[in-house]
Amino acid sequence: MALAGGDEIAFLDLAHVLRIWVELKAPVTAIAKAHGISLGLPHHTPPKFIKRSLQGATHISMPLASGVESPGVQIQGIRITNRALSPEEIKRRAMAGPPVATVSQMNFAEWLAAGVVEVPSETDGHPHAMLSREMLIKRVANVLGASHPAGSENADEFENRFDNIVLQLHRLRVANGYPSTYYQLLEIAGQIVQKLEPIRAIAP
Length: 204
Description:
The chain is an alpha+beta fold. It is built from eleven helices and eight strands.
């Protein structure tokens, strides 16, 4: 596993496999619908008081609500707010505990398109950008060279504008010195393995 041995090549392989799942989103969604399969994909929506406390400050929010095992520790709820929190905000966050994922009614394509990481934006007038699972997978896979040699992939202008953001996330080191992108892709991969088992069982 990528985290167990600090193997960057294993992580890039994972990013490439996830990119393939993104390319399969339409047939996976169609198969689930045709067979009446509810995938029960997990998703996290931040509480309103968290959203209010983030206003007026730039921040990075990576809920990892399903948790990701790292050697000796579980990673869950990465949130960096670029201002001092009030004692009341600190207390409320502590009482709320770590983020919790709930079962969604989204199909596979909708789930991939749902926002999962919020980061400071480079766009004037929009202080933050929300990266969907699909966008994060595609940009990590391409920017870091998992699907193509780094620098050779030609995405459209909309996708390219997230490259610097993804690279900044990759430079954000978390537990054991691993990039935050490792943990987010591992969470997505774990959810796909668990929840798409019915699809793999019937797919030709």
